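Regression check, glutathione case 222:
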Amino acid sequence: MADGRLVIGTKRYSSWSMRGWLSVHLAGLDVVEELVALAQPDTAERLTALSPSARAPYLEHLGVSVWDSLAIAEYCADIEPSLWPVDPVKRGFARSMSAEMHSGFQALRVAMPMNLGRGGRGLANGIPDAVRADIARIDALWTEARDRFGGGGHYLFGAEFGNADVAFAPVVARFLGYGAPLSATAQRYAEAVRAHPLVARWYAEAEAEPTEWLAERYESAD
Ligand SMILES: N[C@@H](CCC(=O)N[C@@H](CS)C(=O)NCC(=O)O)C(=O)O
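Current build output:
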């Protein structure tokens, strides 16, 4: 029997679920996956029944309840400490950029909802200024982390794909999905994240989801 369960939303669309799922898998937790298709008539009812916040992701592990992707990231790092860098300077940077992602970049989120089937099609009317500013800030964060701490590997803090990379994995999906303009360093980083085996697995599982789960709300961004 598994040690618990992880409630997630549609893999094609659920950026927060992708974060929770990646942290849980990186920490090696043995949980069953309970997937609630988003934007369906019964979504709210199912999430209310399965998750205390009525949102995904939600983790139950060995009797511990954890909701919200950032809390799940911290819970997983308690079990697998390498999810945050050991060095305090790197750790401070990793936690700060993850928190900034968690609470910010609203313009980007609204204009470019995660849709793993998007395939690089840009926004029809170009990128609004507020979204450009979000992209520039994220590009600067990735570039600084890569330049200062990333030597010896392809990820933000080097060879380990950790919680900071997890925080930005759905952003990578947005940038690649909408063909966002990036610096060479940020583009290389985005491609490294996309190629990570767990990220590749999430994309493959999203690709296999039933077509009935396609939702206008996420497909119609223009
Ligand atoms: N801050 C939360 C946000 C969770 C969230 O909003 N999840 C979305 C799915 S990506 C959700 O459950 N939405 C409910 C719905 O679509 O009905 C976290 O980090 O986990």
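Comparison notes: The radius of gyration is 17 Å. Residues 129-149 form the longest helix (21 residues). No diff flagged against the previous build.
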